[in-house]
């Protein structure tokens, strides 16, 4: 109200006011349109775009493409998308969401360094010249020409185009080109291909290239369109061929000779395509970022699926300069965060591939009508259950699987016989009713995979780089260098081939790969890389003008941080300790799986700890330091000799640990392993694979339990099903080992008590060392299921030696001055091992050894000889299994019984063993020290040769030992610069020893009869009192140090010897003279015969008999040699009997 008193009033605009329904309709339409544009326009646009893309991809590639939503932001230069799915016959790719950004506002970005692309393209028209001096064909000065500064480091600059994804899933379940190649090899036309159509356009079509790319992998161009071209290559990698066929169709790279008009058209087409490629490549590099991704490989015909997950991935798509003869190099590089690769059990596994293929035939139509009706009635419950599961899967809460894609159930595809589901489960017949004591220890454990470890790789970070060269054309002129001429004779391209490979860099982590993973790997490999069982043809060199081919694939792995490789394995040698518990452990595993299935998917179960029903597995753990590399090169094109496959491993600071004692088995600063895995042209020809292992400064701490573990590993790795007769491939494996400056530590602790296996201050070791050791092992597997096989081997040692190491508390460690106790100039061992593949009490395995040594030298300390006997007990005798100090104390206490069984399997079944050893030594030399711990004065025993023959079986042992003329002299080897040696003072004209021992029942096989026969030639000696004193003191020191009562552990149980020993010794003429200052004492015997036996009866326990036909003792004075005191006796026959109280 104003001051004039007038008031404001409301007036209607329309003369007749009423409710505006049109406005309400506009408001509703605007709201609907606003909601539509805000929420559903992106989906509609993506659906329309998907239909357009799908119309093309489904018609040409049979690929289904679907996009859930897409949004374009022009101001931000971004394209948002969600729910992108690509579904093909071989794979399915699903991306939950992401966006692509074009940073048009940035002025300084990374550019593609392809400065030589246009220049090389001009050179390729008439054929490429060789590189100029100092030019390797890789130029890197093109940044300035593309807008950047020369010499500027563009790696730190951002990319023009970036893409960020989240939730990446890639399912790989088929590989049709491999199977199409097999079908074309048998002349079967592929679906959708017209074999009578020889149009060149169809040959270069993408569909034809995709279906026939695998024909070029192994050199069998069986397709008529390919055979018509005489200059086409017989082999090429799949991905390379697809790329080259598509690129060749655009560039006009036709195979065969070109006319003048065609050549001009091809030249103009090359220039136009080069301009187009240069514009496309200017968009590179493209940066990619992904959060949470997974890759799954497998299908319903594989027992396991290979899964790979990563938390994050950052990479780029780049292009750079290639070699002189190629266009450019494409590079895909990704840095993965926490990659994990696992081999998991396949819950959708139905039957193996062979059974599924057999079930695809028209078997139902051939069945009788009555049986079909009966099957229909029996399938009622199955159909009811299938409908219920289908309804249940509609509700996410009740779904049993969280997969993004669900396979359509097909009852007709189910196996006709349940025995096809698990081909490793065989009917055992009436053996299930046998007594458990009569069953074999390994029968039930063979079907229990208790050494299964699903995680194959777990690494904090990794970098994967995939690269390939976009191939150019073969030029008319070759480079004139000698290396290029050599490569031209070996490669179909006439020069170095285009590069193609994968580089992987691991930032540490753990790798678990054992026999179980290898068996599952074979199943996946047979599905995705089936063996064509077809002979390949060598590739023909490419003619000038043809497109070059990538003839080799390279795979390289680098270790940037410490990496652990663990090999889990089943221990077959310990099955007897777990006898009768296989069913319990198997039932516990099945019950646990049922409980996991019943548990709700959104609830995590408690992780149980290892209990008494969980059997631990054996393992080997290899630790590798940084800078370790693995290189693998595989030929993709066949040569006259076949396909070359080369594997090289460079291991740095490797350390191998085992489950035996959780200690070090070996440690080596550097190991170089090269493997030649080449294959011939014919698929079933003999393959000779060689493995060369070079180790430097290797330290090996070997126990007999390690040998058992390695044997179990080999047995578990070869326990898979054998190949069929018609698919058998013969092999011969050649293993070449080379060790430089190696040391082999053999533990000689009493009773094999080992607490700290690699501690030099807590154990006794006999160390075998050498400057160089080489070994060659040949394993022939060239016969199909032979009854027996023979493995040949040889060992060559140079500058060998033996050291004795004792713990700190040992008196030997305090007083022993020199640790070196034996040396050897050269040692050669060759032999063979003949074994049977079956186990029976009637079969005997044979080991033949020929040992040749040159200039062996040994200090005969008593404790050293005792240590050699301990080696026999700890590695080949009754104490083969080591024990800790606590375990030994439990055994020493009769009141406490250990729960875990120890020792040897009393019911072990194995073949008999026959060992034949022949030993020859040239110039053997032994020294008997005068004192206990030093060798300042010794008696030197030298002979020209030594020869021994040994045969060792399960029932008897034969030994024949012969030594040439033996000379004994007084030695002082301490002064190495000028060692002193006296003239020989004792001479023995040869020694011959024959021994025969009889063994008892297994497994201990004790000796119950032993025969020893000694035949000694003439014994002539003229020695001084110093020599005599050194001889007596040396024998006493040897006897005292052999017992080693100061340090030796008394036996836990007194040794009970039940054998009967018969000893017979015959010595020829004996003439010994002891020279004093003015007098000589002479002992002379014509011969001497000694007989000894300890065959006890009721009267005597031992018998000793001496027979000397004639002997004399004389004392001669030097001043009056004519006067001597001579005492002669008649033939002496004396017997001595002893009886133990």
Number of helices: 19
- Overall mean confidence score, pLDDT: 78
Terminal residue distance: 147 Å
Output the structural class: alpha+beta
Strand proportion: 35-45%
Question: Could you say which overall geometry the principal axes of the C-alpha atoms support?
Answer: elongated
- Helical proportion, percent range: 10-25%
Rg, alpha carbons: 42 Å
Q: Give the beta-strand count.
A: 42
Largest sheet: 42 strands, mixed
The poorly predicted ranges are 118-151, 194-261, 394-398, 400-435, 478-489, 600-611
Descriptive account of the structure:
With 1141 residues, this protein is an alpha+beta fold. The chain has a domain at 1069-1141. The protein contains 19 helices and 42 strands. It has a 42-stranded mixed beta sheet that branches.
Question: How do the strands and helices of this protein lay out in sequence?
Answer:
Elements: H1 21-61, E1 64-73, E2 78-87, E3 91-102, H2 117-123, E4 161-172, H3 176-185, H4 200-203, H5 206-212, H6 224-227, H7 238-251, H8 260-281, E5 286-297, E6 304-320, E7 328-337, E8 340-345, H9 353-358, H10 369-378, H11 380-394, E9 455-458, E10 461-470, H12 482-490, E11 500-512, H13 515-528, E12 552-569, H14 582-598, E13 618-624, E14 628-635, E15 645-658, E16 664-676, E17 687-696, E18 699-702, H15 704-717, E19 731-747, E20 765-781, E21 788-805, H16 811-815, E22 820-836, E23 844-859, H17 862-876, H18 885-892, E24 912-922, E25 925-929, E26 938-942, E27 945-952, E28 956-963, E29 966-972, E30 980-981, E31 986-988, E32 991-999, E33 1007-1016, E34 1019-1024, H19 1025-1043, E35 1060-1067, E36 1070-1075, E37 1079-1085, E38 1088-1093, E39 1102-1108, E40 1111-1117, E41 1124-1129, E42 1132-1138
Parallel strand pairs: 4-5, 11-12, 17-19, 18-19, 23-24, 23-25, 33-35, 34-36
Antiparallel strand pairs: 1-2, 2-3, 3-4, 5-6, 6-7, 6-8, 7-10, 8-9, 9-11, 10-11, 12-13, 12-14, 13-15, 14-15, 15-16, 16-17, 16-18, 19-20, 20-21, 21-22, 22-23, 24-27, 25-26, 26-29, 27-28, 28-32, 29-30, 29-31, 31-34, 32-33, 35-38, 36-37, 37-40, 38-39, 39-42, 40-41
Helix pairs in contact: 2-8, 17-19
């Amino acid at each position: 109200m104003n001051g004039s008193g007038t008031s404001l009033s409301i007036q209607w605009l329309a003369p007749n006011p009423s409710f505006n329904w049109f406005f309400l309709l506009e408001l509703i339409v605007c709201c609907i349109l606003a909601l539509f544009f805000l929420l559903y326009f992106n989906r509609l646009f993506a659906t329309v775009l998907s239909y357009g893309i799908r119309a093309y991809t489904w018609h040409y590639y049979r690929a289904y493409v679907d996009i859930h939503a897409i949004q374009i932001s022009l101001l931000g230069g971004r394209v948002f998308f969600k729910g992108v799915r690509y579904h093909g016959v071989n794979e399915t790719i699903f991306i939950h969401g992401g966006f692509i950004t074009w940073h048009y506002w940035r002025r300084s970005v990374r550019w593609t360094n392809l400065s030589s692309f246009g220049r090389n393209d001009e050179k390729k028209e008439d054929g490429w010249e060789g590189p100029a001096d100092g030019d390797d064909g890789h130029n890197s000065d093109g940044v300035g020409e593309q807008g950047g500064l020369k010499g500027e480091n563009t790696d730190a600059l951002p990319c023009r185009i970036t893409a960020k994804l989240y939730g990446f899933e890639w399912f790989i379940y088929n590989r049709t080109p491999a199977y199409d190649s097999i079908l074309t090899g048998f002349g079967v036309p592929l679906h959708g291909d017209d074999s009578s159509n020889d149009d060149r356009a169809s040959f270069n079509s993408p569909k034809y290239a995709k279906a026939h790319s695998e024909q070029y992998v192994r050199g069998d161009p069986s397709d008529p369109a390919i055979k018509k071209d005489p200059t086409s290559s017989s082999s090429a990698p799949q991905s390379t061929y697809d790329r080259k066929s598509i690129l060749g169709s655009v560039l006009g790279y036709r195979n065969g000779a070109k006319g003048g008009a065609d050549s001009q058209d091809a030249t103009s087409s090359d220039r136009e395509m080069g301009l187009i490629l240069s514009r496309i490549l200017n968009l590179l590099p493209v940066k990619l970022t992904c959060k949470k991704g997974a890759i799954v490989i497998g299908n319903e015909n594989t027992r396991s699926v290979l899964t790979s997950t990563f938390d994050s991935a950052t990479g780029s798509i780049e292009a750079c300069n290639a070699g002189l003869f190629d266009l450019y190099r494409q590079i895909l590089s990704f840095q993965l965060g926490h990659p994990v690769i696992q081999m998991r059990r396949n819950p959708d596994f139905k039957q193996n591939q062979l059974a599924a293929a057999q079930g695809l035939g028209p078997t139902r139509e051939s069945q009788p009508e009555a049986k079909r009706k009966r099957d229909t009635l029996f399938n009622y419950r199955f159909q009811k259950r299938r409908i219920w599961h289908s309804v249940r899967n509609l509700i996410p809460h009740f779904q049993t699987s969280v997969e993004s894609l669900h396979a359509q159930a097909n009852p007709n595809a189910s196996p006709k016989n349940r025995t096809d589901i698990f081909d490793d489960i065989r009917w055992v017949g009436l053996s299930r009713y046998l007594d458990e004591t009569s069953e074999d220890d390994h029968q039930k454990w063979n079907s229990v995979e208790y050494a299964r470890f699903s995680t194959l790789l777990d690494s904090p970070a990794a970098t994967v780089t995939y690269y390939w060269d976009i191939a150019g054309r073969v030029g008319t002129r070759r480079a004139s260098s000698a290396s290029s001429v050599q490569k031209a004779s070996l490669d179909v391209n006439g020069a170095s081939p285009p590069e193609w490979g994968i580089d992987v860099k691991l930032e540490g982590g753990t790798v678990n790969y054992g026999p179980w993973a290898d068996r599952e790997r074979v199943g996946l490999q047979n599905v995705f890389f089936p063996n064509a069982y077809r002979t390949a043809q060598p590739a023909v060199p490419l003619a000038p003008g043809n497109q070059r081919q990538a003839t080799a694939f390279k795979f390289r792995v680098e270790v940037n941080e410490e990496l652990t490789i663990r090999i889990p394995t089943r221990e077959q040698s310990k099955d007897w300790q777990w006898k009768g518990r296989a069913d319990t452990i198997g039932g516990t595993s099945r019950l646990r799986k049922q409980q996991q299935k019943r548990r709700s998917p959104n609830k995590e179960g408690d992780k149980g700890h290892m209990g008494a029903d969980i059997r631990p597995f054996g393992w080997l753990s290899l630790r590798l330091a940084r800078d370790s590399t693995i290189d693998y090169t595989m030929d993709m094109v066949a040569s006259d000799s076949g396909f070359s496959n080369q594997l090289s491993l460079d291991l740095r600071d490797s350390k191998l640990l085992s489950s035996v004692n959780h200690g070090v088995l070996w440690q080596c600063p550097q190991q170089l392993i090269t493997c030649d895995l080449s294959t011939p042209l014919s698929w079933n020809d003999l393959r000779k694979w060689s493995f060369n292992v070079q180790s430097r400064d290797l330290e090996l701490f070997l126990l007999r339990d390690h040998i058992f573990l390695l044997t179990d590993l080999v047995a578990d790795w070869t326990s898979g099903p054998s190949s069929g007769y018609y698919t058998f491939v013969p092999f011969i494996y050649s293993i070449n080992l080379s060790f430089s400056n190696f040391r082999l530590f053999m533990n000689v602790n009493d009773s094999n008590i080992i607490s700290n296996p690699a501690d030099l201050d807590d154990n006794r070791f006999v160390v075998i060392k050498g400057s160089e050791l080489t070994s060659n092992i040949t394993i022939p597997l060239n016969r199909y299921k032979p009854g027996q096989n023979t493995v040949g081997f040889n060992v060559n040692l140079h500058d060998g030696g033996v050291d004795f190491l004792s713990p700190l508390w040992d008196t030997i460690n305090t007083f022993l001055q020199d640790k070196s106790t034996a040396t050897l100039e050269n040692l050669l061992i060759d032999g063979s091992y003949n074994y049977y593949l079956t186990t029976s009490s009637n079969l005997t395995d044979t080991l033949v050894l020929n040992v040749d040594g040159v200039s062996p030298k040994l200090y005969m300390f008593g404790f050293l000889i005792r240590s050699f006997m301990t080696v026999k007990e700890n590695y080949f005798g009754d104490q083969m299994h080591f024990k800790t100090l606590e375990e030994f104390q439990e055994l020493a206490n009769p009141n406490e019984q250990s729960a875990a069984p120890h020792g040897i399997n009393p019911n072990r079944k194995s073949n008999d063993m026959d060992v034949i050893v022949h030993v020859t030594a040239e110039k053997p030399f032994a020294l008997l020290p005068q004192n206990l711990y030093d060798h300042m004065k010794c008696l030197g025993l030298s002979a020209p040769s030594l020869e021994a023959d040994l045969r060792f079986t399960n029932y008897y042992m034969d030994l024949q030992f012969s030594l040439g003329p033996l000379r004994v002299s007084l030695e002082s080897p301490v002064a190495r610069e000028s060692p002193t040696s006296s003239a020989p003072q004792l001479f023995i004209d040869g020694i011959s020893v024959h021994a025969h021992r009889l063994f008892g029942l297994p497994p201990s096989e004790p000796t119950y009869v032993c025969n020893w026969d000694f035949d000694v030639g003439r014994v002539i000696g003229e020695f001084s009192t110093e020599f005599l004193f050194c001889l007596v003191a040396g024998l006493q020191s040897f006897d005292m140090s052999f017992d080693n009562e100061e340090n030796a552990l008394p036996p836990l149980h007194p040794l009970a010897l039940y054998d009967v020993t018969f000893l017979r010794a015959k010595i020829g003429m004996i003439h010994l003279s002891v020279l004093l200052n003015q007098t000589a004492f002479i002992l002379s015997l014509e011969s001497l015969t000694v007989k000894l036996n300890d065959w006890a009866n009721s009267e005597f326990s031992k018998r000793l008999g001496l027979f000397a036909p004639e002997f004399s003792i004389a004392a001669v004075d030097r001043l009056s040699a004519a006067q001597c005191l001579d005492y002669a006796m008649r033939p002496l026959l004396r017997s001595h009997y002893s009886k133990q109280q």
